[in-house]
């Protein structure tokens, strides 16, 4: 009797201790679910996944793991397609949700299912090469469910190799990722519009195609890279046309700018000009929708610089001047995001334009300021816009794929 009464008292203390936190967690889930349903931005889905995970953990602490299990499963289901699109950015959240799921399954005495979740969580926290090795046999055994994860792991591994100066080694890894993602996107298309209501797989394919195109350009193979970036841009056009959200245009603008860079490598600036103009138009649309967000203005600054530089190369300095001046102004305003070297690059382009317009004193002033900022040749427009807004698919060392604003699926 004493032991039974002690248990009841312990349960009552637990309810009192965790009751307030449970109510707050349920409220957070309801709030985040409303936001996720109203706006498809991945930030809101990830916030919902975190809220669900917190609720599941609290229910486990009050000895209600069976009630917590559906919340943990939903959290994993929310994270998985996002991680399969941008693994570097989302793998930590997916690993956390899988860890919670594994703990609940262990408590519910389901050791096999628990081990599967825990093993995947551990693999996500490991080296990129090991993650590929983890997913490969799973994809062979269950291609429908696991190929997207293998493709994401391959893309992530290719990006890691590139970041560590092993660009040639990254090519076959990335090509395998593209082959898998192309097959998955084609399977979605064959299944019909309903299966592709949220085009994660087309987004993932576009990321890998753009990444390969830029990588080939960096390996001095721009002619080989151009078709991949062009295909990525075509996918991005379709995705942007299907969504009224101006943020959809960010990824397309990045693809268009990558296309401009490759065409410039091939000494075809006239062909690049319409793509540069469209990129500026897309960035303007995004900045107008969120005028207070400096990250968007930074993206516009870089695209304006590209457009001004192209017009200067085409011997159209009078037309280039307005873009070059606006680029400098925006680079000044966003120097904390873009860095001194980008401001210096925009100043040097402005100096070239002013020289062509026979305004030597103003040109020299711009060049002097660029020199004072420590400008170095090759550290301006040759860098990808990924430092500000993400590139067309390569992941940054910071753990994400570089986009200040995640893509809206």
TrEMBL record:
Chain intervals with Basic and acidic residues compositional bias: 361-370, 392-409
Region (Disordered): 361-409
Top-level division of the source organism's lineage: Bacteria
Skewed-composition ranges (Low complexity): 374-390
InterPro entries: TPR-like_helical_dom_sf (IPR011990), TPR_rpt (IPR019734)
Name recorded for this polypeptide: Tetratricopeptide repeat protein
Lineage of the species this protein comes from: Bacteria, Bacillati, Actinomycetota, Actinomycetes, Kitasatosporales
